[in-house]
Write a structure and sequence with these properties.
The chain is built from 9 helices and no strands. The chain is mainly alpha-helical and about 170 residues long.
Amino acid sequence: MDRTVEPRVLALGWLARRPLCQAELRKRLAARGVDRDSVERTVADLVAERLLDDEALALDYIVLRSGRLRLGKQRLVRDLERRGVDRDVALRAYGRAIEDGDVDPDELLREAVASRLRRERKLTPAAQRRVYNALLRAGFSAEGLYAELKRQSAALESAEHQDDDESP
């Protein structure tokens, strides 16, 4: 097989199975022993043909992972950076997801806090710390997380006190 065709065939096969960013494709081609010039040419051709698009990949990743896994901005951007997507591209994609209405960070935070609080048997300070730390690792900002956790905890405590007052 002609060496100029082989990297393209490999790349198209991989892209047919799973979306890849430019860095991932470069790494896979290099691991197969494709010379650097051929790797760069293949990546450039696929980008020009819009078959390889880091921003589209980042946008899809953000929309899917934020909703399904309830991940915050910091975690999503960090995960994309680990995959090899440029930080600016990831941040731009996050902003676009918000603009398009695909991601609502405030609603996402509310849902994530509520979901984590439901898992706790009692609303103790230790439980609140567990929820806070878990959602901090999930990529939510410390300030927003603290405020939302405080708001929902107060609402839950108020509801518990009402239940206690109504019991005979």
